[in-house]
Amino acid sequence: MMICIGRSHNSSYELFKVGAKVSPGLKIFAEQGDTNLLDQESQGEGGVFDEFNAPPITEGTGQSEAEFFIDGNHSLVSLVARVVPSPDWFIGVESFNLCVEGLWLESVILEASSDNKFI
Q1: What angle (nearest 5°) sits at the alpha carbon of residue 40, between those of residues 20 and 72?
Q2: C-alpha of 20 from chain center
Q3: What's the chain look like in SS3?
Q4: What are the tens digits of pLDDT across the range 31-49?
Q5: For range 24-37, the mean pLDDT
Q6: Of 17, 29, 70, 109, which residue has the fewest beta carbons closer than 10 angstroms?
Q7: What residues have CB less than 8 Å from 15, skipping those under 6 apart?
Q8: Side-chain half-sphere of 51: how many Cα atoms within 13 Å?
Q9: Residue 6's beta-bridge partner residues?
């Protein structure tokens, strides 16, 4: 089962940071799929604007989506999804800015650029 959770926030909050030790809540989420401590860690955190959970994907393939609120002061989004089966792996997006130079992004294109040998 794949579980995805996230936060919209400002630059004072970090759900995780690449290369740094994760919080106890994220550790439990990655190992067990339990979000309770992770949710508690962000409650009362001034940098968090909204918390969201996408419905779990219970089969090997599927899709899930979630809606969340952002504003001009909280335009960053971070999310993590637990990798199952694994001992404690997760994939994530760290502080992706949805507002660049005062303009909201309409869409984001992610490309492997395999034609240019960038993979």
Answers
A1: 75
A2: 16
A3: CEEEEEEEECCCCCCCCCCCCCCHHHHHHHHHCCCHHHHHHHCCCCCEEEEEEEEEECCCCCCCCCCCCCECCECEEEEEEECCCCCCCEEEEEEEECEECCEECCCCCCCCCHHHCCC
A4: 999 999 999 999 888 899 9
A5: 95
A6: 109
A7: 6, 7, 9, 26, 42, 78, 79, 80, 92, 94
A8: 14
A9: 52, 79
Domains of the chain: 2-116 (2.60.40.2130)
Q: pLDDT band at 116, cuts 50/70/90?
A: low
Whole-number Å distance between alpha carbons of 119 and 87: 26
Q: How far apart are CA 36 and CA 45, in angstroms?
A: 15
**Nearest Cα to 76, choosing from 52, 48, 55?**
48
CA–chain centroid gap for 72, Å, is 19
Q: What are 83's two structure tokens?
A: 């990798």
